[in-house]
Amino acid sequence: MSAAVGPSGLEGPGRRPLPVTGAWQPGDPPGGRRFLAVSPTRSFALEGGGALREVTLAYETWGSLNQDASNAVLVCHALTGDSHVVGDAGPGHAAPGWWSDLVGPGRALDTDRLFVVCANVLGGCQGSTGPASLDPATGRPYGSAFPVVTVRDMVRAQRYLADHLGVERWLTVVGGSMGGMQVLEWGVLYPHRVRSLVSIASDAAASALQIAWSAVGRGAIANDPNWRGGDYYGAPAGQGPHAGLALARQVAQIHYRSDAVFAERFGRELVQPLGDRYDPWAKFQVESYLDYHGEKLVRRFDANSYLVLNRAMDLHDLVRGRGSLARALSRIEAPVCTMSITSDTLYPPYQQLEVRDLLAAQGTPTAHVLIDSPHGHDGFLIEFEQVGAGLAKFLASV
Amino acid sequence: MSAAVGPSGLEGPGRRPLPVTGAWQPGDPPGGRRFLAVSPTRSFALEGGGALREVTLAYETWGSLNQDASNAVLVCHALTGDSHVVGDAGPGHAAPGWWSDLVGPGRALDTDRLFVVCANVLGGCQGSTGPASLDPATGRPYGSAFPVVTVRDMVRAQRYLADHLGVERWLTVVGGSMGGMQVLEWGVLYPHRVRSLVSIASDAAASALQIAWSAVGRGAIANDPNWRGGDYYGAPAGQGPHAGLALARQVAQIHYRSDAVFAERFGRELVQPLGDRYDPWAKFQVESYLDYHGEKLVRRFDANSYLVLNRAMDLHDLVRGRGSLARALSRIEAPVCTMSITSDTLYPPYQQLEVRDLLAAQGTPTAHVLIDSPHGHDGFLIEFEQVGAGLAKFLASV
User: Fold this and answer.
1) Residue A343, by phi and psi: left (phi above 0), alpha (psi -120 to 50) or beta?
2) Of B216, B263, B307, the CB nearest to A290
3) If DSSP codes are grouped into helix, strand and coil, which group holds residue A40?
4) Do A254 and B205 touch (CB under 8 A)?
5) Cα–Cα distance, A311 to A261 (Å, whole number)
6) Which end of chain A is less packed: N or C, by CB atoms within 10 Å?
7) What whole-number distance in Å separates Cα of residue A165 and Cα of residue A70?
C-alpha cells in the first residue's frame, strides 16, 4: 500500500533540498522591492491587542505619480500573492507577476498613465514584517510569538505607504479574494483616501465555508511535526514544515478551481499511460498536478505566514465594532465595483451582490461585473480579459 | 500564534486515550454482525494482481427471505459506512445505523416484506477483511502489506454472500456514493443476478475532482508520523494516525456539504460568545464542528482502510477492460434508477445523467430522481423522505 500513499516525496532522495522557509529574507536579492519602515518612532498597535515594535512594508511600483498625485492605484494581493504584480521571475522573485496581463503600458491598469503600487501585506513573507522576520526583542524570528493581525491592520500599514508616497487619495484600490477584503476596509477605514474601489471574488465577512477551509489548511500545517509549534526557522535545510504547507496548498488548489476544469484538463489521465498490464498503482495526472502546486508554494512561501494570513481572513468582518453591515458600508463614499465569478463556490456571487445591494440602497454608485468562467475562485487570476475590461470600464466612469 | 493552530488536541491532557485503530477486531462484541468466510478453499484473487489467502465478510440482515428468494435487497455502503444500516449504537456498533429511516417495517425498504442485507466491504474495517485484519502469512495485521482492492473486488466478494444466503437474484441493489459504484458493477459483472439497480450520488468512473479530494485525504494520513508507513497497529494506545485521519475526514466533511448549509448552520458564530473585549483567538463554531467530526471518525474507523477504499474509489471505472462506457453499460439488463442531489458538487448530477442517457439509448428501463436539497453530497444520508419516496416508487415499478 505504501508505494502509492507514502509521504509527499518533497524531500525524497535525489531532490534538491528545500529551504526551511520560502520567505524572502534580508540579504536576498531585493528584485523590484523597495522598503518602508512604518511608524518608525513607536510600535505598531494591532487590532487584536498585540503590537509590533517595527513594521516594514516591501512594495513595488510601476509608472509614475503625476503632479497632482491623482493617478495612483493600489493593488492588494491575495493570500499567497505578494508585491510582484507584474514582471518576470528572477533574483528575489520566485514567481512571475500574478497580474502581469492586467498591468502595463496599454493594459487595463495602463502604466503609461497610472502609478500602480502593491505592497506585501503585514504578516506576509515576501519582505514585509511577518512571522519569519526577526523580532527586535529577541533577535530571532518571531515564529510562534507573532501576533494576530487582521485585514484592518494590513490596511492601516498600507496607509503609511500612501502617506510616504504622497498619495492623498488613491484613484482606485483593487484586489481579489483577501485583496478584496482590504479594498472594502480601505473604503470604511479611510473613506476620504479613495476615489473608487474594486473588490473581486471577495465578501463583507468570511463565511463559515471559508473558515472551514482555512481551518483544515491550518490543521495540515499544525499536524506536520516539522512545524514545531511555529518555531522551525532554525531547523536544518530540508526540515521545514514542507509537507504540511504543501498539503494545505493542495486542498486550496482544489477548492479554488472547479469540477469542470479538472474534468476537462485531467479527466482520468494517468502520468504513465498503462502498458499491457493493469497497474493499480498508476498515478493520475491530477495527483501529479497537486504535487507540483504543493512544492511550488513551499519554495516561495512561509508556513507561519500561511497561518497568520488565513486567520486574518477568517477574522475579516466589516461589521466588527460597527453595529451592522449597512452601517459599516455607509462610511464608504467612493463608487464601488464588485466582481464575481460564475463558478466560484468559495466566494459565491451572492456575497458580492449583498455588498452591492446595500451600497446601492444607500445611494453609493456601484457596478457589478459577473465574470463568466469555469475556473472557480482562481478566475480572478486567469480571466484577464474580462477582469481587465470590467476594470477599465469602471475606471473610465470614475 | 500556536494557541489557535496547535495540533488537533485529540490526545491532549484529560482526554480519553484513543485506540490506535477504530477497526472492529475479533473479540469485540459482534453486535448484529454475522460472518462469512468467502472462498474458503482457495485464495481470493484481486483485480490488481494481488490475492488474499482468506476473505471474511461481516454482514447484517433485516427481515426474512421469502420462499422463492425473490425479496432480497442488497444495500451497499459508502466510504466510511459499514454493515450497520439500521439500529442503535451499542456494543460492537460505535454509531447508529446510517440509513435507519429508510429501512424497517413500513419504511421505503419495508422489512415486513423485504429481506435487507448489507456487508462491510472488502478492505473495510468493521469486520470484513481489511488492512487491520491479521495476515495469515505472518499472524500480524496486514498494514502496509494489504493489496489494492477495487470496487469489482468488493462486488465479487458480495457475490459469494448472495450464494451463501441463497439469493439467486437481488430484487434490487442500492447504494450511494461508493455504494452506487458497487451497484453499477453488480449490473455489469452479474447482470443475471439483479432485478433492478439504484445508484445514488455516484458515477460511472471517478472524476478528476474526486481523485483530487482522495489524494489530499491520503496525504493527510501519510503526513502523520503515527501512520508509520501503514504499520501502526502495534503502537501504544493514543499513538495511532489519529490527527491524519481526523484531518482527512475534516476535508471531506466540507466538500460533502455546501456553502448554503454551513452559512445557515454556523455563519460566523463563535464557540464562546465574545465578552467585552475582542478576542482574536476565539474559535468559530464551524471549527468546533470539524473537530467533532474528525474525532468521531477516528473512534470508529481505520486509517489504512480509509486509504485502501479511497484508492478503490479512484480506480472505479466501468470502462476499464470493457472498451467503452456504452459497451460496459450494455451488459446491464435490469432497470436502473439513478439519483442525484441538486447541491452535490462532488458528484454533480450530470454524471448520473450520463449513465441514465446511455442506458436509455440502449433501451434499458431507467428512472432518474433529482433530490432537491441544500445538503450537498451528504444529501443521500440526510434526505430520507425524498430518497425513500424515489426508492419506493421505483421498486413498485419493478
Assistant:
1) alpha
2) B216
3) coil
4) no
5) 28
6) C
7) 12
Task: Check if B325 contacts A (Cβ < 8 Å).
Answer: no
Q: For residue B122, which of B94, B155, B99, B144 has the smallest C-alpha distance? A: B155
Q: What is the per-residue pLDDT across A302-315, written as a single tens digit (0 to 9) for each? A: 999 999 999 999 99
**Of residues A205, A208, A254, nearest to B286 (C-beta):** A208
Task: Please report the sign of the dihedral spanned by the C-alpha atoms of residue A332, residue A202, residue A295, residue A211.
Answer: positive
Question: What pairing do the DSSP bridges indicate for beta strands A72-76 and A115-119?
Answer: parallel
Chain A CB within 8 Å of residue B205 CB:
yes
Helix A242-255 with B242-255: angle, nearest 10 deg: 10
Cell numbers describing residue A93 = 522573485
- Which listed residue (A128, A344, A373, A375) is catalytic? A344
Arithmetic mean of pLDDT, B227-256? 97
| H or E stretch covering B80 | none
Distance from the Cα of B174 to chain A's closest Cα (Å) equals 25
Of chain A, the percentage scoring pLDDT greater than 70 comes to 96
A361 touches chain B (CB under 8 A): no
Query: Tell me, what's the pLDDT at B272?
Result: 85
pTM, rounded to two decimals: 0.96
> Within a 13 Å sphere around the CA of B282, how many CA atoms are in the beta-carbon half?
18
Q: Rounding to the nearest 10 degrees, give the CA dihedral for residues B73, B353, B309, B163.
A: 30
Digit-coded pLDDT (tens) for B38-83: 987 899 999 999 999 999 999 999 999 999 999 999 999 999 999 9
Q: What is the pLDDT of residue A6?
A: 46
User: CB–CB of B280 and A48 under 8 A?
Assistant: yes
CA A256 to chain centre: 13
Q: What's residue A279's pLDDT?
A: 83
**Cα A158 to Cα A185: distance, rounded to the nearest angstrom:** 11
Judged by a CB distance cut-off of 8 A, whether residue A137 touches chain B is no
A177, A214, A258, A343: which one is catalytic?
A177
What type of residue is A218? Answer: R
Distance from CA of A69 to the nearest CA of B (A): 37
Annotation says A377 is catalytic: yes
> Which of residues 146 through 185 in chain B touch A, CB cutoff 8 A?
146-148, 150
Contacts of B292 in chain A (CB under 8 A): none
Q: In whole angstroms, how far apart are CA A172 and each of A187, A195, A197, A370, B216?
A: 10, 6, 5, 19, 39
Q: Could you tell me the end-to-end alpha-carbon distance of chain A, in angstroms, rounded to an integer?
A: 60
For an interface test with B, give the residue of A142, A154, A211 to mutate (most B CBs within 10 A): A211
Cα–Cα distance for residue pair B157/B185, rounded to 1 Å: 12
Q: Which of B2, B224, B314 sits opposite A230 (nearest CB)?
A: B2
Q: Which residues of B touch A265 (CB under 8 A)?
A: 208
What is the Cα–Cα distance from A301 to B347, expressed in whole angstroms?
A: 33
Q: Give whole-number Cα distances, A98 to A83, A89, A298, B125, B279, in Å.
A: 9, 10, 17, 46, 34
A281 and chain B: CB distance < 8 Å anywhere? yes
Instruction: Say how far residue A268 (Cα) sits from the centre of its chain.
Output: 31
CB contact under 8 A, A208 and B267: yes
Q: What is the pLDDT of residues A64-99, one digit of tens each?
A: 999 999 999 999 999 999 999 999 999 999 999 999
Distances from the Cα of A90 to the Cαs of A30, A95, A97, A220, A377, in angstroms? 10, 8, 11, 30, 27
B286 at A interface, C-beta within 8 A: yes
Residue B157 clears pLDDT 80, i.e. is over it: yes
Chain B residues with CB-CB distance to A345 below 8 A: 259, 345
Q: Are B245 and B303 in contact (CB under 8 A)?
A: yes
Query: Residue B347's Cα: distance from chain center in Å?
Result: 14
- Of A328, A308, A323, A330, which Cα lies nearest the Cα of A46? A308
